[in-house]
Amino acid sequence: MRGWPEGYGRRVLDEVDSTMDEAARRGPELAGPEWIMARRQTKGRGRRGRHWRDPKGNFAATLVMRPGEGAEVVALRSFVAALALYDAVAAARGRTEGLALKWPNDVLLNGGKLAGILLESAGTAAGLSHFAIGIGVNLAEVPERVEEGAVPPASLAGTGVTQDEFLDLLAGAYADWEARFVTYGFAPVREAWLARAARLGEVITARTTREEIVGTFETVDEQGNLVLSTPGGRRAIAAAEVFF
Ligand SMILES: O=C(O)CCCC[C@@H]1SC[C@@H]2NC(=O)N[C@@H]21
C-alpha cells in the first residue's frame, strides 16, 4: 500500500458532532488540505439536510481545503472524490465487481448505497474561504433506516477493513485523482466517472426542488450536469436526487 500522501494533513478524533462542523471550525486556520476523520459522529448529516446515521465502526471523514479556484470548478471535485472513493472501496474489497457510481456522487455496491458524499463551502462564489468534502461509508454495517424510495443500503461488512485503513486508502486515491484533475482538468475525470456510471443509457428519474424529470441518462456534461434526453428535449440538470 502507498504511504500517506504528501501535503495532506491528518486529524483523527474519537468523537465529534460532525466532521463537516469540525472542517468549518478548522477552515480559517488551514495551512493546506486536511483529512478529518471521526470514529463517531453525534450529528452526522447527509445531503438535503438529512440526518446521516453512523453505526459503530462506519467511516466518517471530511477533506477540508482552501482552493484557489471559483466555486464552479471547485464543485467538480465531487466527481474527483467519487472516483477516489470507488478506488478505495475497490482496494478494500480487492475487486471492482458490483461497484458503480450514481450521479452525482454515491457509490453503489450490487445496486445498494454503500457510501455518500456531501459538499459544503464557505465564502463567495469568486473566492471560497474553505471547501469541505464529507464522506460516509457503511464500512461495518448498514444504517437501520433509510429514506423512502432511496436505494437500499449496502455495507463492506466482512472485509475487515478498519476506519484507519480505509482513511489511508481513500487519502491516497484522492491525492492521485486530485493530481489528475489539477494537471489535465475535468475531461479525464468525467471520462472515468462515466465509465463507472450506474444506469447510463437507461431511463431514470431526477427529482429537483421544483419538478420530476424522467428521461434517458445520456451523459454528464463538462460542467458536471446530469444530461437526460426526454420527450420534450435534452435537459441538463445541475442538482437533483436520482431514482432508478
Ligand atoms: O447524503 C449523503 O449521501 C451524503 C452523506 C455524507 C455523510 C458524511 S459522514 C462524514 C461527513 N460528516 C457529516 O456530517 N456528513 C459527511
Automatic annotation (TrEMBL):
Its EC number is 6.3.4.15. Keywords: Biotin, Ligase. GO terms for cellular component: cytoplasm. InterPro entries: aa-tRNA-synth_II/BPL/LPL, Biotin_CoA_COase_ligase, BPL_C, BPL_LPL_catalytic. It catalyses: biotin + L-lysyl-[protein] + ATP = N(6)-biotinyl-L-lysyl-[protein] + AMP + diphosphate + H(+). PROSITE patterns: BPL_LPL_CATALYTIC. It comes from the Bacteria. Signal peptide: none annotated. Residues 1-182 form the BPL/LPL catalytic domain. GO terms for molecular function: biotin--[biotin carboxyl-carrier protein] ligase activity. This is biotin--[biotin carboxyl-carrier protein] ligase. It comes from Rhodalgimonas zhirmunskyi.
